[in-house]
Design a protein that fits this description.
220 residues, mainly alpha, 12 helices, Endonuclease Iii, domain 2, 58% helix
Length: 220
């Protein structure tokens, strides 16, 4: 799955002057990145994309290991199979897997989609309650679904629930950006990332948006 756009999927991440000033004060690298990309982030944060949690998770599974364009195309084909709308869990479970595969989905992804639908149908994944749960509880519920790992859960927390203090330690873009911006000799592991990001609390999500934005001007 491609690196998320800093703005195209952001829901409610806050970037008030007070928060931005706090990030500036705790980290000189963040201070520089805010100077370089602050206008971009402020503009993109206005472009909120809302949607239901179930649809967001469907898109997450479909888009794994695909370019944005390919993911959009395949997801659109899948919607066409269900009258142009996202299938309900019941519709997905009742559908012929081979018919769904004709839309361009692999057998493993179809199994992941069906497992998501089954978790929702069984009440094991309580979509309507996710807003009420802690970050850790959301991660626990999502990663119980086949095909949804910690990275997917982090993206859901950041870009669907709008949680302010998420650090996706497994995201390759964040690791690359931190290596470049903090002049490290090698990619940071999860422990090193946690240490570097400690001063950003409780606004690590916003800090990550600046880091992702910095990649747009980084060769390769």
């Amino acid at each position: 799955m491609p690196r998320p756009s800093a703005g195209s999927r952001v829901r409610t991440v806050s970037a008030t002057p007070k928060i931005v000033a706090e990030l500036r004060a705790v980290d000189p690298v963040m201070d520089r990145l805010i100077d370089e990309h602050g206008a971009v982030i402020r503009r993109e944060l206005k472009e909120e994309r809302r949607g239901d949690a179930y649809g967001a998770l469907l898109r997450s599974i479909v888009g794994q290991q695909l370019s944005t364009k390919a993911a959009r195309t395949i997801y659109g084909r899948m919607l066409e199979l269900f009258g142009g709308h996202a299938p309900t869990p019941k519709q997905l479970l009742a559908a012929d897997p081979d018919q769904i595969r004709a839309a361009g989905l692999s057998r493993p992804k179809i199994n992941y989609l069906r497992d998501l639908a089954q978790h929702v149908e069984d009440g094991e994944l309580e979509l309507e309650r996710l807003d009420e749960l802690s970050d850790e509880e959301v991660i626990e519920q999502l990663t119980a679904v086949k095909g949804l790992g910690e990275w997917s859960a982090h993206m859901f927390l950041m870009f669907h629930l709008g949680r302010p203090d998420v650090l996706p330690v497994g995201d390759q873009g964040i690791r690359n950006a931190v290596k470049t911006q903090y002049r490290l000799r090698k990619l940071p592991d999860a422990k090193r990332l946690e240490t570097i990001a400690r001063p950003w609390r409780p606004y690590r999500t916003l800090a990550c948006l600046y880091l992702w934005s910095s990649l747009d001007n980084t060769p390769g």
